[in-house]
Structure prediction request, 320 residues.
Amino acid sequence: MNLNDFCIHFAHPAYQLASRFAARNTGIEHFQTWTGDQTRQRMGESNVLVLSGFWNNALLDQAGALRFIQVCAAGFEQFDQSRIRAQGIRLAHGGGVNANAVSDHAMALILALNRQLHLARDNQHRHHWRGMISNRDRREDELPGKTILIVGLGRIGGRLARLARAFGMRVIAVKRDTREVPDGVDGLYPPQEFPGLLPQADIVVLCCPLTAETRHLIDAQALAAMQQSACLINVARGGCVDQQALIEALDAGAIAGAGIDVTSEEPLDPGSKLWDFDNLIVTPHSAGETRRYEDNVIDILLDNLTRLARGEPLLRNQIV
Prediction:
């Protein structure tokens, strides 16, 4: 099979995937749809589909000659893998496409909470110059010597571990495969030991996929096990945290604060209490966004198209 035998359907409401792909001058036919309706209408016109949020398993009814789906994100829980396999379609995710961006974002949330940058920005908007603070518990803090607990030590969690170590932090992590401890990690533990690690951590960071095992991993019991001075960072999926339990913990002062890039329902309800906590930073699922995002997706896509053209059995980030 030749690469020019492919026709690619990019489907995304914001990212300029088609125009960035055109800049590669591959000669491969391609087009982009910008809405869910457009995507449904043009299903069947391509044999390669590149998308994430527009996916609905009902699209498989209109798959036509579709041979390959490239997810342009790391998450793929919305795809019916058994049905995709039954229809002879290959599926790969975009793991690694935003590893730098998300780990940078997690570190930014950690720094912002510890340096109280969100409060400084609020004071700026009020034209308020805050004076020195006598109460030591209310002051900004330093990262060296703190313990960070990272849940999920894949590309994102692994890079975050290296960043945290560069800031002088003690790094402990949870991962299913603990046979090899990466450089910069002081302790690596299996998931069943997670509850016992919580009291050690000054900062708990979720970098894990959403699975049956990680859904509501942070619940009322987990929040109660954390130090009152600890912070929670979630750059994973909203479902990994029991949102009501987090609200109650912040209300009660059970933890020092949180930084979340994801919520149970997105966009976050304008009436949610999460908007109003001074010790909570909310970002709109933007951790993975970067000026390089489209090109990172296309790098993975072209690698996989080359493998498919050669008839290779293994794809990069293969799911099906």
About this structure: The chain has a mean pLDDT of 96.
